[in-house]
Write a structure and sequence with these properties.
heterotrimer, A mainly alpha (about 350), B alpha/beta (about 375), C mainly alpha (about 325), A: about 350 residues, 13 helices, about 0% strand, flat, B: about 375 residues, alpha/beta, nine-stranded mixed beta sheet, three-stranded mixed beta sheet, 12 helices, 16 strands, elongated
C-alpha cells in the first residue's frame, strides 16, 4: 500500500537506486522519451518507404523504442537496470494493447449504432415493418420484463443463501454450498439455457418457448453472483452490531432484518445491480429458451418474447430485404445493450457512494 | 453506521413502477385493438387467431403476408413461429398449429400421420413461396460469370481451386480470369437453402458432386458462415470468394449465370417461377397435395433450376368452421397477386405463376369444416 | 481485523418461531442452490439419454454421438487454449502495470477501464469481431502463411475473411483478460508490503522486486484466475457463433484457414433454434459434455485459489 515505488512509469526509481559496483551513472529522465521519439521517426520513414499502415507504424515504434531504451540503459546503467526498463516498456505496452479492442469496439458500436438511435426505435416494434423504419420497443420491453423476473427469482434465493452462509451456516453444508456457488458462477450461459429448456420440455412438451424460461435460465447465472457479492458484504458488517442487538434481547432473525441488512444495504444494492448488469446482455440462453418475435408480448407465460440481445443477433444474421436497415437496427440494439450495462454499473457505483454507511472506527 | 433502507426501497419501487408504466402501453405501430372490428369495405369480416409454424426461410415473406392480410382482415391475428421446417411439420401433425410452413414436402411417414390429423380428405401442400438461390461471387475484375453445373459442383467440392482453372475458362471464353484462389462459402447452420442447393447439385452435376443432398453442408474445409447474411457478408469480405444465397440478398455481389442445357441462365423471379411451373407434381398423394418434384436437371430454356420452394401445409377438412374459414381466407390472400407481391416486396421472392395460382385455388376452395 | 470471521456461537436463550422460520428459509435457499445445480445435471442427462441410446445413423452427422461431439470438444478446447495463452501474460502484465507502475492517482481509473472490457456483452464482441477485427487480421494471416507456413498451425490456405480459429482465440483472450487481470490485481495488492520493501531495501530494481516478492506470492492466484478465465472461454457462445467459420471440418490443426471445427456452445446456439426431435437431444448431450468440462476446470480453479487463501491466512 505505502511504498515509495509507485511513481510515473517513466520516472526512475531514484530512492531505491542502490550503489552498484559498475558505477552510479544513470540515464537522464528524458532518455526513454527520446528513444521513442527517434523510434517513431524511423518507423515513419520505414512505413512511408513501403506503404503507410498505422498498425505497422505503431508496432515499429514500440518495438524500436523499447529496444533503444534497453540498449541505451544497458550501456549506461548496466544489465539489471536495463532489464527493469525493458519490463517497464513491456508492461506499459500490454496495457496499451488492451485498450485497442476497448476503444475500437466502443467507437465502432457508437458510430454504427447512432444511425438508428431515434424516437421511432424506442416506440415501434417490427410488426408490419418491411425494410426501413421499425424499432426495438418490443425487444426492450421483453428485456425489461425478463430481467425483472430474473431479479425477482434470484435476489430472494441469493440473498437468503448469503444470509445462511454468513449468519447460520456451519460445517459441511456451508462448505459445500460455498464451493458449489463458486462452481456455479462458471456454468456456461448456454448450458443454463439448455437446463431451462430441458426443465420446461418435461412439463410442456418439445418446442416450447416462454419468457419465463428465459428468466429461469438467467436466474441460474445470476443467483451465484448475488450470493457471492451479498456474502462479501454481509461479512463486513461488524460483529459488535450483532452482539449489541443480541444483548438487548433482539431475536436473531430480527437482528438480521433490522440491523445487519440495513447496515449492508449499500453493498447489497451495488452487488445486486452488478449482478443484473451481468445477465442483462446474455444472449445464448434467451436464444434457445425465449426465441424471437416481431410483436410486443407482455406476458412471459405465453409464447415467445423478443429480447434486445436476441433481437440484435437475428437482425444481424437474418436481415430482410434490403439488409442495410436491419443491420442498422442490430447495431443500435448493440449500442443500447452497452448503454444498459454501463448505466447499471454507474448506478451500482452511485448506490455504493450515496448509501454507504459512514464508517467510523 | 447510517441506516438508509427507506431511501433505497423507494428508489427500487420507483424504478419498478416506471418500467411497469412503460409496459402498459403498446408499440406505436401495433394495432392493439384487434377486437374493435374496424370494418373493411369488401369481403365479410372474420376474426380469430391463426397459428402457423415452420420454415424460417419464408419468415420474411410471412411478415409481408401478415402485414398485407391485416389490411384486408383487421380482426384476424396470424402468428407464425419460425422454428424450422421439421419442427413446423411436427407441430402441425401433432395438432399444435393450424398450418405449417415447410421447405420440404411431407414424407411417407408424415403423410400417414397427416391422415390421423386431418382425416380421410387429406391435406393441401401448396408451393407458395419460391425463392431463386443465386451463386454469388466476389472476384475483382470479373463482372459476369457463367458456370455449368459440373463446374459449380467442382468449385464447391473444392476440386477446382483457382479462378483461372481450365474448367471455368471453358465456360467463360471472353473473361479474363485471375489466378486468385477460390474460397467457397457455405452455410454453417442447417438450412433449406443448403438442402435445395445440394439437391440441385446431386441432380444436375452428376459425378462431379459425390455427396448426398442434405440440409447440413456436406463438404469439409470451406468457409462456413451463419445464415444467408453471414454468407453474403463472408463473400463480400474476401477476394475470390463464392457462395450461395437467396437472390434477394445478393446486393452488389456478382451473380453467376448457371448452365441450363446449352445456354446460361441468370437467376430471376421469372426464371425461378418457370421451373416450378414446369416441374411435375408428385404422384400418388392426395388430390390437393401439390408437392412437386422440382426439375433440377431441366434443360428448358429460360428456367433457372436452383430455387428454394417452401410449402404451406394444412388440412382440407378442419374440425371447426371458424378455423376452416380462417385458413381458407388467409391462403386465398397468400396465393392472390396482392399476396405474392407483398411477399416479393418483403422477401424478394418470385411470385407464383397464374397456372400455379389456379391449381392452388382448387385446393383452397376445397377447404371445409368437417362434421 | 477480526470482523470478517464468522459470528461467534450466538447466545440462544430460546428458539422463537420467527427465528426458526427465518433460519429455515435461509437454509432452504442454500439447499435450493444445491438442488438447482443437481437439477442442471439431472435434466441435461435426462434429455441427453435419447441421443446416447439412439442408433448411430440417426444422430446428426450419421456416425454416432461421439464422432459428432468429438470435433466440437476439440474446437472448444483449441479456441479456449489460444485465448488463455494470449490472455494470461497480457493480463498479468496489465495487473502489474496497474498495481506497481501506473501513477497512484490513476490506478483505480485504469483498473475500471480494464473492467469495462468485462462489462461488454458477448454478442457485442461478436459484432465487433466480425466487422472490425477479423478483416484487419487477413493481411497478418497472409503473412503468417507465407513466412511461417511450414509450421502446421500456420499452414494455408489463409482465410480470405479472417474468421478463423486464431481470430476467435484472440477475441476470447480479450474477453477473459479482465477476469484474469482482476484476480491477479487482487492478489498483487495483497502481497505483504514487508516482502516488497525488504526486496527494495536490498537494492533490487522494481522488476527484481516483482520477480522475487510479488510473482511467487501471487502465483497460485494467477493460475486460479487463468483457470477461471479458461472456464469462461470454454463456455463463450455468441461471439464464437457470429465470428467463427466453423464447419464439419473435423479436427484440423491449422489456425488461419477457413476450415475450423466449431465449438460446442456456438454449435448449440446456431443449430438449436431450428432443431427438432433427436437433434435437440444430441445438442443437449453436447451441452452436457461442455458442462462437465467447465465444471472440472472451475473446480480445479477454485481448489487452487482456495488453497492459496488457506495458506495466506497466516497473518
Amino acid at each position: 500500500m505505502s511504498t515509495s515505488t509507485q511513481q510515473s512509469s517513466t520516472g526512475s526509481a531514484a530512492p531505491i537506486a542502490a550503489p552498484q559496483p559498475g558505477g552510479h551513472r544513470k540515464l537522464p529522465s528524458w532518455a526513454p522519451w527520446a528513444a521513442f521519439a527517434v523510434a517513431a521517426v524511423v518507423a515513419a520513414v520505414f512505413s512511408l518507404a513501403t506503404s503507410w499502415n498505422i498498425v505497422l507504424f505503431v508496432i515499429y515504434t514500440v518495438v524500436l523504442g523499447t529496444l533503444g531504451t534497453y540498449v541505451a540503459s544497458r550501456v549506461v546503467e548496466g544489465p539489471r537496470k536495463a532489464t527493469d526498463r525493458l519490463v517497464t516498456c513491456l508492461v506499459v505496452s500490454a496495457f496499451g494493447i488492451a485498450l485497442v479492442p476497448l476503444i475500437s469496439l466502443v467507437y465502432e458500436v457508437v458510430r454504427r449504432g447512432a444511425q438508428r438511435f431515434d424516437a421511432e426505435y424506442f416506440t415501434a416494434s417490427l410488426v408490419g415493418v418491411i425494410g426501413e423504419g421499425g424499432g426495438a420497443y418490443h425487444a426492450l420491453m421483453g428485456t425489461l420484463i425478463i430481467t425483472l423476473l430474473t431479479t425477482l427469482i434470484s435476489v430472494p434465493i441469493g440473498l437468503m443463501t448469503a444470509i445462511y452462509l454468513v449468519e447460520y451456516g456451519s460445517g459441511r453444508l456451508k462448505r459445500s454450498i460455498t464451493f458449489l456457488v463458486d462452481v456455479m458462477t462458471g456454468i456456461p450461459s448456454i448450458v443454463a439455457g439448455l437446463f431451462a429448456y430441458a426443465l420446461f420440455v418435461l412439463i410442456f412438451g418439445p418446442g416450447i418457448r416462454l419468457g419465463i424460461m428465459g428468466a429461469v435460465a438467467l436466474s441460474v447465472l445470476m443467483i451465484p453472483v448475488v450470493v457471492r457479492s451479498c456474502e462479501e458484504v454481509l461479512k463486513l458488517v461488524p460483529n459488535e452490531l450483532r452482539e449489541a442487538a443480541y444483548a438487548l434481547g433482539v431475536p436473531k432473525w430480527r437482528t438480521i432484518l433490522k440491523v445487519v441488512i440495513p447496515t449492508a444495504i449499500a453493498g447489497l444494492g451495488t452487488g445486486i445491480t452488478l449482478a443484473i448488469a451481468r445477465v442483462v446482455g446474455e444472449t445464448a440462453p434467451l436464444l434457445i429458451t425465449v426465441g424471437i418475435t416481431n410483436a410486443t408480448n407482455f406476458n412471459p407465460f405465453d409464447g415467445r418474447m423478443a429480447t434486445l440481445p436476441v433481437y440484435a443477433f437475428y437482425q444481424l444474421t437474418q436481415p430482410g430485404v434490403p439488409p442495410e436497415n436491419a443491420i442498422a437496427r442490430a447495431w443500435t440494439a448493440a449500442l443500447l445493450l452497452i448503454i444498459l450495462v454501463m448505466a447499471l454499473n454507474v448506478v451500482a457505483r452511485l448506490i455504493s457512494r450515496f448509501f454507504a454507511p459512514k464508517t467510523g472506527r | 453506521m447510517k441506516l438508509s433502507t427507506t431511501t433505497r426501497a423507494t428508489a427500487v419501487s420507483a424504478a419498478l413502477a416506471a418500467s411497469l408504466a412503460l409496459a402498459a402501453c403498446g408499440a406505436s405501430n401495433e394495432d392493439t385493438g384487434s377486437d374493435s372490428g374496424s370494418g373493411g369495405d369488401s369481403a365479410e369480416q372474420l376474426s380469430g387467431t391463426l397459428v402457423g409454424a415452420g420454415a424460417s426461410s419464408q419468415e420474411a415473406a410471412m411478415q409481408g403476408w401478415r402485414a398485407g392480410y391485416s389490411e384486408v382482415q383487421s380482426g384476424v391475428t396470424v402468428n407464425y413461429d419460425p422454428i424450422g421446417s421439421g419442427g413446423g411439420r411436427e407441430q402441425f401433425l401433432a395438432g399444435g398449429t393450424d398450418f405449417a410452413g415447410s421447405d420440404a414436402a411431407l414424407d411417407e411417414e408424415e403423410l400417414a400421420a397427416a391422415e390421423e390429423r386431418c382425416g380421410a380428405s387429406g391435406i393441401f401442400e401448396l408451393p407458395n413461396y419460391i425463392s431463386p438461390i443465386a451463386v454469388v461471387y466476389n472476384l475483382e475484375g470479373v463482372d459476369e460469370l457463367n458456370l455449368s453445373p459440373e463446374v459449380v459442383a467442382g468449385i464447391f467440392n473444392q476440386q477446382i481451386t483457382t479462378w483461372d482453372a481450365p474448367e471455368i475458362a471453358a465456360d467463360n471464353p471472353d473473361a479474363e480470369l485471375p489466378s486468385t484462389a477460390i474460397t467457397p462459402v457455405n452455410r454453417s447452420d442447417e438450412s433449406g437453402t443448403t438442402e435445395n442447393f445440394t439437391e440441385y447439385l446431386v441432380a444436375a452435376a452428376g459425378d462431379a458432386w459425390p455427396h448426398e443432398a442434405s440440409g447440413d453442408w456436406p463438404v469439409a474445409g470451406g468457409e462456413a458462415a451463419q445464415g444467408t447474411s453471414g454468407v453474403i457478408q463472408a463473400v463480400g469480405a474476401g477476394d475470390g470468394t463464392i457462395g450461395y444465397a437467396d437472390l434477394s440478398q445478393a446486393g452488389d455481389l456478382g451473380v453467376a449465370s448457371i448452365g441450363v442445357g446449352e445456354e446460361f441462365v441468370a437467376p430471376s423471379a421469372e426464371a425461378a417461377a418457370a421451373v416450378v411451373e414446369n416441374s411435375e407434381t408428385l404422384e400418388g398423394r392426395g388430390e390437393y397435395d401439390f408437392a412437386i418434384e422440382l426439375a433440377r436437371d431441366t434443360t428448358e430454356s429460360g428456367n433457372y433450376p436452383i430455387v428454394l420452394v417452401s410449402y404451406h401445409v394444412g388440412c382440407i377438412e378442419y374440425d371447426d368452421q371458424e378455423k376452416a374459414d380462417l385458413v381458407k381466407d388467409f391462403m386465398t390472400y397468400v396465393i392472390s397477386e396482392d399476396g405474392q407481391d407483398a411477399a416479393a416486396e418483403a422477401a424478394g421472392s418470385a411470385p407464383i405463376s397464374d397456372a400455379l395460382r389456379e391449381q392452388a385455388q382448387t385446393a383452397v376452395d376445397a377447404i371445409t369444416a368437417g362434421s | 481485523m477480526t470482523t470478517t470471521s464468522a459470528p461467534p456461537a450466538t447466545p440462544r436463550p430460546k428458539r422463537r418461531p420467527g427465528d426458526r422460520i427465518f433460519a429455515g428459509s435461509a437454509k432452504g435457499a442454500g439447499i435450493l442452490i444445491l438442488v438447482i445445480l443437481a437439477g442442471v445435471a439431472i435434466f441435461l442427462i435426462s434429455e441427453s439419454v435419447p441421443a446416447l441410446t439412439a442408433p448411430a445413423e440417426d444422430v446428426p452427422g450419421g456416425e454416432g454421438l461421439f464422432s459428432y461431439i468429438g470435433p466440437l470438444v476439440f474446437g472448444t478446447l483449441m479456441a479456449a487454449t489460444i485465448g488463455l495463452l494470449v490472455a494470461t501474460p497480457l493480463a498479468v502484465a496489465i495487473a502489474l502495470f496497474i498495481t506497481y507502475y501506473a501513477p497512484r492517482r490513476m490506478a483505480a481509473g485504469l483498473g475500471y477501464l480494464i473492467d469495462l472490457l468485462a462489462a461488454v456483452p458477448s454478442i457485442v464482441y461478436g459484432f465487433w469481431g466480425i466487422t472490425w477485427f477479423a478483416p484487419r487480421l487477413v493481411p497478418f494471416y497472409r503473412w503468417l502463411e507465407e513466412n511461417l507456413g511450414f509450421i502446421p498451425l500456420f499452414a494455408g490456405p489463409a482465410s480470405a475473411t479472417g474468421r478463423t480459429m486464431l481470430t476467435i482465440g484472440l477475441v476470447l483472450a480479450v474477453m477473459i483478460l479482465p477476469i484474469i487481470s482482476a484476480i491477479s490485481r487482487e492478489v498483487f495488492t495483497q502481497v505483504p508490503s514487508l516482502h516488497r520493501e525488504a526486496a527494495l531495501a536490498l537494492g533490487a530494481t522494481r522488476w527484481e522486486m516483482i520477480k522475487m516478492a510479488v510473482l511467487p506470492y501471487g502465483k497460485s492466484g494467477i493460475i486460479g484466475g487463468a483457470m477461471l478465465g479458461l472456464g469462461r472461454a470454454l463456455g463463450e457462445t455468441m461471439a464464437v457463433a457470429i465470428i467463427l467459420s466453423g464447419s464439419a471440418a473435423g479436427i484440423t490443426w491449422t489456425l488461419i484457414s477457413s476450415a475450423n471445427p466449431q465449438t460446442i456452445a456456438a454449435n448449440i446456439a446456431l443449430q438449436f433454434p431450428e432443431s427438432t426431435g433427436l437433434a435437440v437431444n444430441t445438442l443437449i448431450a453436447s451441452g452436457l459434455a461442455l458442462f462437465v468440462i467447465t465444471l472440472l476446470v472451475n473446480m480445479l480453479a477454485r481448489w487452487v485459489v482456495n488453497r492459496r487463501a488457506d495458506f495466506s491466512g497466516a497473518n
